[in-house]
Amino acid sequence: MTTIVAVKKNGQVAIASESLTTFGDLRLGRHYKGEYEKILHLHDSYIGICGSSAHHLVISNVMSRFEDLKLGSRMEVFETFRQIHPILKEHAFLNPKEEEDDPYESSQITALIANRTGIYGVYSYREVFEYDRFWSIGSGRNFALGAMFAVYDRLKTAKEIARVGVEAGIEFDTSSAGPIVVHTVKLNEKGKK
Asked: What is the pTM of this model?
């Protein structure tokens, strides 16, 4: 899996991840692959994706086709993922089944989005949450959340806090390893609220 975090503080948002890919018990470290970054940069947003290793390429391909990709609010993120769900099924052959009694088809994607308006989390059934301080996804998320909680009031920048979160994931999660990749964006007035 992975450790991906996003942090909002002092007019900036940072998104960070580690770089390990795993296939069951097999670990594919940064030095064994050309494309190691887990964070996509599309239309002024950074999108960290966890789950299947196929998601990164599929989402990059599908979202790059949108001329006017909108990810600037909770509802815009929801609408974008609602629109791409049938595309994922029809053109990328997504299997939307999880459990027989699920209320909705699954997009099988967990993502964290950071941009000038803030931080958004997207989950399997296209649930979207907006986060005011920080959040994490992936198998190292619990370690990252605890570490970021511990340092949030003591560190000054979103970048520093994000790095601490990913470092905790790398330290304790068997499916996370360096190097760490961090991107920062200046928040607009809506994002600062």
From this structure: 0.91
